[in-house]
Amino acid sequence: VSGQCRFAEATSAPTAVPEQCIGTLPGPCIPNSGNWGCNPDGISWADSYSVGGRCYCYTTYDHGIGILNVSTPNGVQTVRQVCDAIRARFGEGPAEGREYFNTVQCGHGPHNNAGDEDPDTCPGRVDMPNDAAAGCRQVGPCWDLTEVYTPTTNPCTTLENIDFDGNDLTGGVDTGSGAACATLCFATPECTHYTFAVPFGGCYLKTSGAGSKPADPALNAVSGQCRFAAATNAPTAVPTEVQTTTPSASQTDAPVAVPNDSSMTNSPTAVPSTNPT
After folding, report:
1. In 41-177, which residue ranges form alpha helices assigned H by DSSP?
2. CB 49 within 8 A of CB 97
3. What is the pLDDT of residue 254?
């Protein structure tokens, strides 16, 4: 059993989450010596977005941002680890109403090493083409790391050395652990099952557990179920009134009784109303 406890290449001091959140940074946008101006090229510059009062990561971790350290309630974490934790806890957020920012924390630090995110340049909004320079100075909500790292309970089961093959909703998400994969599944309404195995690329969210099969023990695969899939077949209605006819004199067979609910063997299985424990 092996593991990683820290990133050797992360040499920066931890960046504290700023006290100021939503608002406008002081001073105008000033182009820096690296020729980064105050006219960002739309969301192609974006490393984060805000929606519903929450800041989400939207980054490729370029220009050294992924290995920078951040102070969290769970100790010092890299930016990449923080973004993975946010995604595992809250998912991606709504698609409508997003506001995009240049820095990974919606206009706040930490800042990359390219210069375009410097506090006096353009850390803020990058999706305001009609007033780009003013947008550069607008910042959004901070990461709510207290909520991100507050332990939560979820009803997901855990099955070791099991692989739910197929029915992928997403795949290859680097959650870091099976427990984090379960949290991500539980936070994703469409996800019913999950499989986590590092050789497979990480966390795979599933829409069904129909492909359950034993996994190679060497993979250390962890799978589980977080909710039941919705029933796709409409239940067959049991008739409430049975039409009968008076048998003729030539009819000697007794009428066939209509089965009640308890004797029907082809009734659909009801979907449990509670989550598994």
Report:
1. 79-90, 132-135, 145-148
2. no
3. 45
